[in-house]
Amino acid sequence: MKTYQGYKYIEGGICAAQGFKANGLNCGLNSDKNKNDLCLFVSDVMCNAAGVYTQNKVKGAPVTVTKSKLEASGGRAIAIIANSKNANTCNADGKDKAREMCRLAAVELGTDERYVLVASTGVIGQPLPIEPIRSSISELVSGLSYDGNEKAATAIMTTDTVKKECAVEFELDGKTCRLGGMAKGSGMIHPNMATTLNFITTDAAINAGLLQEALSEITKITYNCLSIDGDTSTNDMVIVMANGLAGNKEITSEGADYEILKQALYIVMSELTKMLAKDGEGATKLIECTCASAPDTDTAITVAKSVIRSPLFKCAVFGEDANWGRILCAVGYADAEFDIGGVDVDIASAAGSVAVCRSGAGVEFSEEKAAEILKEDEIFVNIELNQGTASAKAWGCDLTYDYVRINGDYRS
Q: Domains in the chain, please, with CATH?
């Protein structure tokens, strides 16, 4: 992980911040009893909250219910219940069951169901069995703990091969604050957002409006710059909850404290984004594309995203073939205005770097060196447009035989 001055990586995921408890268990949605499929996390006190959701026109019932709850409450929440294996999407009774999940958790927690949010991930178009959730809710709540983050993080996994968590510690207003999160996602991942299920908690105090502003801004340069396969999920959401237990003076306007918190949010969200990219279905390599010296940030984002979502380039990375023409092709069809004649491209990894294009044209390079570079499991594409000062990054992975295998029998 990249180090950032003034920020310290810590353990704990969504439980790293003060006052957050979590739990996860197998309620029976997943036939493999060794795999958790239901989780809950809750704050000791009411939180200011913000959300970003899928841009797919087909939205899972949990997305619709959660979004409407946050809008009705003015950005207030105290808990989130989430399940895997079933997306509760495209079902006539989907909203009723999503609300019932919230109600069941609220009754057991002794809180108001208006402030309990819900999320689901898994197979689309299959009715969600509510009885396994109902019969497990008591155990789920009684098992809540301040170190239950791992149980929760594993409960939202579908085709993920590893859990995804990150947390940092920093200082605001002379108080030690923490911000941490967990994410799931391996396939059906594509800009724009958000991407998959992502939950973030902090004990810093910030009002809901600014929290929403920060989340939307950071989502644009992290989760929205991630693509595994070109499919935008129906159930994607990012929820951030801030309970203020760190004791800092509440952030109510933009300024130094707001920028410190926003940087913490960027660190955690960018690290989770890279974890999602590296664990793409069937992936063997992480691809990070940086577009620099662009006319503006939007152009840099568009170009970087165009490269990492190119199926042909993703295949070339899997085959460890320095077919740089596929990079320039993807740069060329990016929906942005710039002079292709000024573009430079390098391919790099822990094994070194090689220049493959200068001023929009190929240059001689060692194929042997390039092959050595591409053998690594993290590949970096560095693009200079040489037409400004803006820059952006995007993340993806290679496209492998296993991606087809995994998605050929996903429902089983």
A: 8-278 (3.60.70.12), 286-408 (3.10.20.340)
